[in-house]
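#struct-help
A.M.: can someone run this one for me? Single chain, 207 residues.
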Amino acid sequence: MSEAWRYFLLLFGAAVVANILLIRFIALCPFFGVSNSLETSLGMSISVIFVMTMATSVSWIAWNYVLEPLGVGEFLYIPTFILVIASLVQFVEMVIKKTSPPLYKAMGIYLPLITTNCAVLAAATESVKPGFFTKLNIAYHYGFVESIVYTIGVAVGFSLVLILFAAMRERLELAPIPKFFRGVPIAFITAAIFSLAFMGFAGMFGL
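D.P.: on it. Structure tokens below:
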């Protein structure tokens, strides 16, 4: 198997086959909270891609060159990773507030909540800490480049689903839906159908 093909499979598997939202059901809070507007979803997607990729990069370095050599990885990896994520989110928040105040206002509380977005922490932990998910028959132990490719896949999968779902919800606002189904009920039903659709990718390329 060529190196390029292996990286493609890693990226595709993380983004589609094991989509963090629709297959693994992680980070559903921002998924439902921000997806009511396409513009807001685009802003959140760009922010998550940046934060998630940078968080994994810094976390990988911290784990392999600081925490593990000092023998404190098992005790300090969560606060360390969260500190890294929080710092990056603060930076993104300042940039968006300065460059696009309307988008900053539209994203509201969900922008700073990227700090506690379990998708960001999960991507960093899975690709950095060996054997974290061994109980789920997953034992990631990626090198630096593999960690970045995997994380980009997770972030792209998150963004793809968020944007598609936001576009669908905007269309649903104009659809003749019964009153008692409008809002959250139809959002949950739509998300379930999305999830069933993504399950169809299981086993593709042997993933």
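A.M.: thanks! The chain has a mean pLDDT of 82.
D.P.: also worth noting: The CA atoms of residues 33 and 110 lie 7 Å apart.
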